[in-house]
Specification:
The complex is a heterodimer of chains A (466) and B (1006).
Chain A (H helix, E strand, L loop, with lengths): L23 H12 L6 H27 L14 H25 L6 H24 L4 H7 L16 H34 L3 H10 L7 H34 L11 H28 L7 H31 L3 H13 L3 H13 L7 H4 L2 H28 L14 H24 L5 H5 L16
Helix pairs in contact in A: 2-15, 3-4, 3-8, 3-9, 3-14, 4-6, 4-15, 6-7, 6-8, 8-9, 9-10, 9-14, 11-12, 12-14
Chain B lengths: L2 H9 L10 H5 L2 H8 L12 H21 L25 E9 L2 E10 L2 E7 L12 H11 L7 E3 L2 E3 L1 H17 L5 E5 L5 H13 L4 E4 L15 E4 L6 E5 L10 H10 L12 E6 L4 H4 L3 E4 L5 H11 L13 H16 L4 E5 L5 H13 L7 E4 L9 H13 L5 E5 L3 H4 L6 H5 L4 E6 L4 H4 L3 E4 L8 E4 L5 E4 L12 H8 L7 H13 L20 H11 L1 E2 L30 E7 L12 H5 L7 E2 L4 E3 L1 H6 L11 E10 L2 E9 L7 E6 L28 E18 L14 E3 H6 L3 H4 L22 E6 L8 H9 L7 H5 L8 E7 L7 E7 L8 H5 L5 E3 L5 E3 L9 H5 L6 E2 L10 H4 L14 E2 L5 H13 L12 H5 L5 E5 L6 H6 L4 E2 L11 E4 L1 E3 L7
Parallel strand pairs in B: 6-7, 6-14, 9-10, 9-12, 10-11, 14-15, 15-16, 20-25, 22-24, 27-38, 28-37
Antiparallel strand pairs in B: 1-2, 2-3, 4-5, 4-16, 8-13, 17-18, 18-19, 20-26, 21-26, 22-25, 23-24, 23-26, 28-35, 29-30, 31-32, 33-34, 36-37
Helix pairs in contact in B: 5-24, 7-17, 10-11, 10-12
The chains are: A mainly alpha (466), B alpha/beta (1006).
Chain lengths: 466, 1006
């Protein structure tokens, strides 16, 4: 970063990744004060209220669902999967950016990741929580699905069907969830110790004390920590690629035209990262405004993420063109019809073009460096991508299913109010968890931020004991 | 109460009378009050506030105490098994009894499956010439009517419960003064009736009281326009090479359709590509199932059929035909071709006239059949088997006139529901109210029952003794399968009571008549012989054999008996139907609900109507071009939704109905279906759909001109189970022309794409050392009649989901009939039906993707569904290219109505919420056969296992069997050149395969 080829002040010069004039103390004070304060920003209450109301909608929707059955949704035959699976894939995808930022960018020594990795990881975890709800509740008998999908020894000596991609999903998602939680928690330990030492209320001291697992900041602790963190980063890295690959198998293994495509694994992974970065931006931009963290989450971060978003977006668009090309090139009448139905004359063709608008056209504004540095532009593009990626799964799942092989079975799909309440309910769950996290845990890694202070020679962390 | 009171009481009774107490016997006012007051004496005090408070206190205390009792251990209830097992009953094994279902006065011969005293399923009687083992949708669903929880349960007098003795007493009291006048003022209104025993009783009554009049009203089967034909035509379609239908739906509707379909399809089933097929020409105003199976089809208005028939008759040189009116260009092109084809097949051709066409068309058809040598070979004319007046309109009009004139003192209405169904111009209800005493005998306390002082629950045919004649004259016996569930009585019982022979069982009445017949003492002389044509030695042997067979073999006009000569056809004297102008309205009964009598039958409500696949509603068919005027642009929809509601104005009357563009309907014709809009049908059928009886008049009950259609701007939700009717260039139904197929045997195979073999699968192929079940469905035989759907529903306990769930395309039928139209929608080139059950794929896409292994391959090749293991991910359904899997999105099975529980097949699991289900190849029947064969230590015979859809099929289009048995029928069918697998290019290797449709078109017309 230091040796820029551009003179200071040139717009082409990279922006700093931390605001000027920060010392170890100022970073610590700033980031601990976000949590250890009695003055919660009003905006926090506003967002929390919205999230909590939506979360209650989710609770009601799930209760009613368990009482009545999944017929309360618009799912039908031939469209056996609809909103719940769309939501599942969407949430799982969102999680991917967090893992990518914390694991892959760590291994690639991209130090700008430091300011965003903590809440991106939290986002991953909460997105997995939202996602994990759906595979269970979308089944006809969730009280059985909740454990029959796991290979547990039982008196009937029945195992799950290991040929089914849904079983692969169970392993992929549960591995992903547990590794992400572990990675996140390990990363939190030094900061928990900082909180333990800074907090004044005895109860808080106790709580953070327990969470810090006796961290004293000794050299041995740091050595162990660095090893563990690196190992977990190594473990997480393949997950970034594998989880959405497995999720894409749910479709690619099926024989439904529009599902049965070999491009799906890379295309889904790119889509996941694309959407994930859009979601990180969606969260980062309001959060840094709410807590005045412009010094830590600088325009440099926003710009970098916008670049990643643009790049992965182009991979996704490449996926769309591959799908279209191979649909045509296969010469298979079912594939060709599926494309025409999806893009041209089908009753849901509008969804494809809205998807192209959201995922292809709008994000192209990120080519402009000026617009990349305009927060509102980046935020708008990210919101479009969030919607677009949801629609992408809608297009893949619903429009492929509603008209497949036999014309006699072609039917329409219409969601019900419960579909929407459940979708927005998980948004509420996500917001609630996210804002609770922001309120009680450091949303930016304090000790890692300290390593970015460049005004002084990088101090050895162990002397930073509290 | 004194002994004298009791004696007086007993004298008024007939038959056996049981009483529970002397109070009941005496019928004292105290007892009556006790019986009928909802709250016993002193209940009125609860209106008093203080009393109410007291009541609430008591309630509170008893609720609290109710909790205490929960702590006590309930006394155990011991179940005692049979000490002496009843003869013949083996728990878990059904017994079959021969019986017969009367419909429109004629019998549908049946075998009723009886599980531990409960009839659960009906099959056709394979020995009976009118069935040959097949049945139709109505027969299959009639078992549900038996258990209908909304059937009436009590004799009602002015809405109060009454008893049989009080009814008969009231009836005798009312009859006494009438009898002295020779019965004048006593009228009986029934449905068409052919029962010899009932007719005998009626003759007894009318001999004693000659002024009694017997009227007939049946808006579906007993109604004619333009006079009733002189004779009843009985066709031998198996002998016909050329069949011409003049607006006749002889394959699709009515009790004759089963035998007609059997005979017709026997000439469509090819063995080799060069086998000869028959040829069917259909002239009709709107598409029917018969028209859908035609090789050539001409759309003309119903009013023009007479003109077409005269033109055809005169072109064939029939003597005495009036000058033919001008026919359309298309028709003009047809007539010379038809003449050539009919002449070329002299003695092997037949012309069929439609039931809704006037007597003149029937007379012309008969004259043509005489001219082309059909009479006596391909068709037999006989005296009608139905004894009631054949022209129901005339009969009802006479009754209404007399009622209005005050000439009717006592009216007994049996079965029929004229208050709802009578022609609107007769104003039946006003006339009815002028009759001093009205008695209604019916299975439902319906609109008519509500307007009568007395309502008597009628016994279902599965609960009563009786006899009926099939359309071919065969006398069929009706044996009860169960005691009347709701205390019903039969018409025979009422009639016997009127004739003073009440008190004996109906079995004795029926047996008594046939004993007399055996001894030659009846008015009608019957030839009673066994199936080999030998006379019976004794009356007991006769009776036993008759009950065993279910019919009297020697009375069939198709196989034995010489028909009673019908009135001669010549000289031809025609009353030409009146000229009609303007937009044409055609009245049709709903194919399943009929005139509304089946409105409370959920199976029938949910059975898709043929051709449109609409459920739960009546619709008006118009041509696609006419529909365009009302904003319906296509006969295909992307999904269920609203259709425009049009106002139909006809003779100053108005009704609203949703329009449905049906390809093959003539322009400027609207086909309306009556039977919906019942107001007292029950929990299923009340207030469902629009009532069209408000438009139907006695002058033109079937078709008329001068109707106007007006846009209303309103919309109405119409749900159907299929919304896309074009094949989109795919070939789910493979169709070849007979000529082309005879030249190129590979023509069917060439229509399909490349077929991947087992080697493309990742998984090891299955090995079958024992049986390997498979099915072949002949699309050339299938007429699309839907009987398989209802049979499957009855056999496999399939739930009814209701209109709102069908709207979301969640119907549960395990087998469906896909219908595809080809060519210009206004003039379809072809209409094809394809029954689609689970294809039981060899490489089943559903099996791989189920995460819990709830759908697995059996060692006999079945794709088994394990309900208990299913968690309901629906992945299997998504991955099924045939979309034959059905999901219980909500709790569809009725676990609460006790009446319906008795109907269920005990061999099939009732599925609960959240579980996937689908066709099992009737695995319960396979297992029964396996057990039988093991017990008898023999292999399972080919044809021993029939799936429910196969057994019911009147076209024998479905064949099931063992693919490992080289001698089986299914193997022979699959070896045919016509055999192909549906979507076999997907690599699923379905083991249900189809035999392609072959059309036998006349080169002169194409």
């Amino acid at each position: 970063m230091e040796g820029s080829q551009y003179p200071k002040g040139d717009f082409r010069a990279p922006l700093p990744i931390i605001g000027p004039g920060h010392s170890f103390r100022s970073i610590t004070n700033k980031l601990t004060s976000v949590v250890l304060t009695k003055n919660t920003p009003k905006a926090w209450f506003a967002v929390m209220a919205i999230g909590f109301v939506l979360l209650n909608g989710l609770m009601i929707a799930i209760t009613y669902l368990l009482f009545k059955g999944i017929g309360i949704w618009g799912t039908n035959i031939p469209v056996g999967w609809a909103f719940p699976i769309i939501n599942f894939v969407w949430w799982i995808g969102i999680g991917h950016a967090g893992t990518l930022i914390s694991a892959i960018l760590l291994l690639f020594k991209q130090d700008w990741r430091t300011s965003i990795n903590r809440f991106a990881e939290a986002m991953t975890l909460f997105a997995v929580v939202c996602a994990a709800i759906f595979p269970v509740i979308h089944t006809g008998r969730p009280w059985l699905a909740a454990y029959w999908l796991f290979p547990y020894p039982n008196a009937m000596t029945i195992w799950p069907n290991f040929r089914s991609p849904l079983i692969w999903d169970v392993f992929a998602v549960s591995t992903y969830g547990s590794v992400s939680a572990l990675f996140w928690f390990i990363g939190l330990i030094p900061d928990m110790a900082t909180f333990r030492d800074t907090a004044e209320h005895p109860l808080l001291k106790k709580m953070y004390g327990v969470l810090s697992l006796g961290w004293r900041g000794s050299a041995r602790h740091w050595e162990r920590y660095e090893h563990a963190y690196l190992l977990l980063a190594g473990l997480s890295t393949p997950l970034v690629l594998s989880v959405h690959t497995v999720v894409s198998f749910d479709f690619a293994v099926g024989i439904v035209p529009g599902w049965h495509a070999t491009i799906f694994p890379p295309y889904f992974v790119a889509g996941a990262i694309y959407d994930g970065f859009a979601m990180v931006l969606t969260l980062a931009i309001p959060l840094r405004a709410m807590y005045g963290l412009r010094d830590f989450i600088t325009d440099r971060h926003i710009e970098n993420m916008a670049k990643v978003m643009l790049a992965t977006g182009l991979v996704v668009v490449y996926g769309y063109s591959c799908e279209a090309f191979f649909g045509w090139y296969s010469g298979n009448e079912f594939e060709r019809f599926m494309l025409k139905n999806r893009m041209y004359f089908g009753p849901m063709a509008w969804s494809y073009w809205v998807l192209i608008l959201c995922n292809f056209l709008v994000p192209q504004i990120m080519w402009s460096k000026r617009l990349r540095r305009k927060t509102w532009a980046v935020f708008t593009a990210a919101m479009f991508v969030n919607v677009g990626m949801w629609l992408e799964r809608f297009v893949i799942i619903v429009t492929s299913l509603h008209r497949d092989f036999l014309p006699s079975s072609w039917e329409m799909y219409y969601p019900t109010k419960w579909d929407f309440i459940t979708l927005f309910g998980t948004v509420g769950l996500f917001l609630t968890l996210m804002f609770l996290f922001v309120r009680v845990l450091p949303l930016i890694s304090i000790f890692e931020m300290r390593t970015l202070v460049t005004d002084k020679p990088a101090a050895a962390p162990q002397v930073e004991g509290h | 109460m004194t002994l004298d009171d009791i004696r007086t009481k007993l004298n008024g009774l007939e038959g056996r009378a049981y009483w529970r107490s002397l109070e009941e016997l005496s019928g004292t006012p105290d007892f009556q009050q006790y019986l009928h007051q909802e709250f016993p004496a002193n209940a009125a005090e609860f209106t008093d506030p203080a009393g109410r408070r007291q009541f609430l206190k008591l309630m509170g205390a008893s609720l609290a105490l109710a909790g205490v009792s929960a702590c006590t251990r309930q006394p155990p209830e011991k179940l005692v098994p049979y000490v002496t097992q009843p003869e013949e009953i083996i728990p878990g094994r059904p017994l079959f009894y021969a019986t017969s279902m009367p419909i429109g006065g004629v019998g549908m011969p049946l075998l009723a499956e009886n599980h531990m005293g409960r009839p659960t399923k009906l099959e056709g009687n394979p020995e009976h010439p009118a069935s040959l083992g097949a049945t139709d949708v109505l027969a299959q669903a009639s078992v549900l009517n038996l258990y209908d929880p909304d059937r009436s349960r009590n004799i009602l007098n002015l809405g109060n419960e009454a008893t049989w003795p009080t009814l008969t007493a009231a009836l005798q009291t009312a009859l006494a003064p009438l009898r002295s006048a020779g019965g004048a003022g006593f009228r009986i209104l029934t449905e068409p009736i052919s029962s010899p025993t009932v007719i005998d009783q009626m003759e007894t009554l009318m001999t004693a009281s000659p002024q009694v009049k017997w009227h007939q009203w049946d808006p579906v089967y007993g109604t004619v326009q333009g006079g009733a034909p002189d004779a009843q035509a009985i066709y031998h379609l198996d002998k016909a090479d050329v069949v011409v239908s003049l607006d006749a739906d002889f394959l699709g509707f009515g009790p004759t359709a089963i035998r007609n379909t059997k005979d017709f399809s026997s000439r469509r089933r090819m063995g080799t590509p060069t086998d000869a097929l028959n040829r069917l020409y259909v002239v009709e105003p709107s598409l029917t199932l018969t028209g859908a199976n035609a090789d050539h089809r001409l759309t003309i208005k119903a009013r023009d059929v007479y003109g077409f028939a005269t033109a055809l008759a005169s072109a064939l040189g029939v003597a005495g035909v009036p000058a033919a009116p001008a026919v359309s260009d298309d028709a003009g092109r047809w007539i010379p071709v038809l003449v050539d084809d009919l002449r070329a097949h002299h003695g092997r051709a037949v012309v069929v006239a439609g039931d809704h066409q006037p007597a003149a068309v029937h007379a012309l058809a008969r004259a043509i059949n005489d001219a082309i040598g059909g009479t006596g070979t391909t068709v037999v004319y006989a005296a009608p088997v139905v004894a009631t007046p054949r022209d129901g309109i005339a009969s009802l009009r006479e009754l209404v006139t007399d009622m209005n004139a005050g000439a009717v003192q006592l009216l007994l209405i049996v079965g029929t529901n004229p208050v709802f169904t009578a022609p609107a111009d007769l104003d039946f209800l006003t006339a009815l109210k002028k009759v001093p005493l009205r008695i209604h005998l019916g299975q439902q306390d319906d609109e008519t029952g509500d307007e009568c002082q007395w309502h008597v629950p009628e016994a279902h045919y599965l609960e009563s003794w009786g006899d009926v004649r099939a359309f071919d004259g065969t006398v069929s016996l009706i044996q009860p399968l169960i005691e009347p569930l709701y205390g019903g009585h039969s018409f025979l019982e009422v009639l016997a009571s009127i004739n003073g022979v009440g008190g004996q069982s109906t079995q004795d009445l029926v047996k008594g008549y046939w004993t007399k017949a055996f001894n030659g003492q009846t008015k009608t002389k019957w030839t009673l012989q066994d199936r080999e044509g030998r006379p019976f030695p004794t009356v007991d042997a006769f009776w036993r054999q008759a009950l065993y067979d279910g019919f009297l073999a020697s009375t069939s006009l198709l196989t034995g008996a010489v028909p009673t000569p019908a009135a001669p056809a010549t000289p031809l004297s025609l009353t030409p139907p009146p000229a009609m102008t303007g937009l044409e309205i055609i009245f049709q009964p709903d194919p399943y609900i009929l005139d509304g009598r089946n409105a409370n039958n959920g199976w029938l409500q949910e059975t898709p109507k043929p051709l449109s696949k609409v459920t739960w509603d009546a619709i008006a068919y118009v041509s696609p071009r006419t529909a365009e005027r009302f904003g319906v642009m296509s006969f295909q929809r992307s999904g269920n939704g609203d259709l425009p509601l049009v106002e139909i104005q006809y003779r100053g009357r108005k009704a609203k109905m949703a329009i449905w563009p049906l390809p093959g309907t003539a322009d400027d014709v609207v086909v309306v279906h009556f039977g919906y809009g019942r107001t007292r049908a029950g929990r299923v059928g009340t207030k469902v759909g629009q009532n069209l009886f408000t438009l139907r008049t006695s002058a033109a009950p079937w078709f008329d001109g001068g109707v106007e259609l007006h846009e209303t701007g309103e919309k109405y939700l119409i749900v159907s189970t299929q919304n896309h009717f074009a094949m989109e260039g795919r070939a789910p139904v493979r169709v070849v022309e007979a000529e082309e197929f005879a030249k190129n045997a590979k023509a069917v195979a060439e229509l399909g794409a490349e077929r991947p073999g087992p080697e493309v699968s990742l998984y090891k192929p299955f090995e079958y050392n024992g049986h390997k079940w498979g099915m072949a469905i002949d699309l050339n035989a299938c007429t699309g009649c839907n009987a398989c759907i209802t049979a499957c529903v009855a056999e496999n306990n399939i739930s009814v989901v209701g209109k709102d769930q069908v709207e979301r395309t969640r119907e549960m039928h395990w087998i469906r009939i896909d219908t595809y139209y080809e060519g210009d929608p206004s003039k379809p080139d072809g209409v094809y039906h394809q029954p689609v059950p689970c294809q039981q794929c060899e490489d089943a896409p559903c099996e791989v993707v189920c995460p819990v292994g709830a759908t697995v391959h059996s060692d006999e090749g079945l794709n088994d569904m394990v309900y208990n293991r299913c968690v309901g991910t629906r992945y299997c359904s998504n991955n099924c290219p045939y979309k034959v899997r059905r999901f219980n999105f909500l709790l569809y099975s009725d676990f609460t109505t006790p009446e319906l529980m008795a109907q269920r097949n005990p061999d099939v699991t009732i599925r609960s919420r959240g579980v996937m289900e689908k066709c099992t190849y009737c695995v319960q029947r396979i297992n029964h056969a396996r057990i039988d064969s093991k017990v008898q230590n023999r292999p399972i015979k080919d044809g021993e296992i029939k799936t429910a859809c196969q057994q019911v099929c009147p076209a024998d289009a479905i064949v099931f069997g063992d693919l490992n048995d080289p001698a089986s029928r299914v193997v022979a069918l699959k070896a045919q050149e016509r055999n192909y697998g549906l979507l076999e290019e997907t690599g699923t290797r379905p083991r249900t395969s189809y035999l392609a449709k072959v059309r036998n078109r006349n080169p002169a017309l194409s």
